[in-house]
Amino acid sequence: MQRRTFLRAITAIALALSWAGLGTWRKTSAAETVKLGIGDWPPYFGQDLKHGGCFAYIVSQAFAAAGYQVAYSVMPWKRALAEAEEGSLDGSPGWKATDERRAHFLFSDAVITSTSVFFYRKEAPFSWMTMADLAGKRIGVTAGYSYGVVFDAAVADKQLTVDAAKDDATALKMLVMRRVDLVVMNRDVGLDILHRRLDPDVAALIDYDRKPIDSQPSYLAIAKSSPRADTLIADFNRGLAKLRSDGALEQVQRDLEAGLFY
Question: What is the pLDDT of residue 97?
Fold first, then answer.
């Protein structure tokens, strides 16, 4: 009897040691809270969107896989980064990893890839390979936005003719009214506007070219000032990898294009 009790104790210790060797993957008895600041960026983030938007949903699910729950605070984007640096928040999702930001934040693996494409009227299909193929086209853009090094350089060199709108929705309306021939825009943002802000009969007249103009990854940023910054990034990355391997990230993209986050 004593021998069996001794063997069970040894086995329990061995199992405990084997789990301890799995790294920083956390299985908490009660979910820990991660405080993140977000702004408005449909369809990625938005209070009136299902699950708070597809980016917010991915972040919440990746953290949930690691035993955390996420508390979002809605505020201007710049303030979200500032409050994370000050310690009021752990971080903020949806950012590009610039050198300036890397000085103050740790960045996760890429959560989504923001892809810019050309939207066009179905009555006027087109194809292109290089910027030179767009000569003679009047292209709608949104004032103050960058669309990648190649496109921006072509505009600066006056190889392209652009007409700047005050916002993305206005740019697409310019396309509908035939004031421009094409509109360059984030694909997911453009689809969001077509689904939610234009009459269905009008939206049905618009399509987008599948060839990307530019693609930029967006990340979760966790402030280096947070005492658990390294742990949060490591755990989030593991949760994100699980979503990717399970096919959940691909499903989110399919749901997004089908309008299921609106």
Answer: 95
Q: What are phi and psi of 182, to 5 degrees?
A: -140, 160
* CATH code assigned to 28-113+216-257: 3.40.190.10
Contact 186, 151 (CB under 8 A): no
Cα distance between residue 255 and residue 189, in whole Å: 14
Supply the pLDDT for residue 18: 28
pLDDT at 31: 63
- Cβ burial, residue 136 (10 Å; 0-12/13-18/19+): exposed
Q: Which fold has domain 115-215?
A: D-Maltodextrin-Binding Protein; domain 2 (3.40.190)
| 3 state SS for the chain | CHHHHHHHHHHHHHHHHHHHCCCCCCCCCCCEEEEEEECCECCCECCCCHHHCHHHHHHHHHHHCCCEEEEEEECCHHHHHHHHHHCCCCEEEEECCCHHHHCCEEECCCCEEEEEEEEEECCCCCCCCCHHHHCCCEEEEECCCCCCHHHHHHHHCCCCEEEEECCHHHHHHHHHCCCCCEEEEEHHHHHHHHHHCCCHHHHCCEEECCCCCEEEEEEEEEECCCCCHHHHHHHHHHHHHHHHHCCHHHHHHHHHHCCCCC
Q: What is the mean pLDDT of each run of 10 residues along the chain (262 residues)?
A: 38 32 37 92 92 96 96 96 96 96 97 96 94 95 94 95 96 96 96 91 95 96 96 98 95 85 76
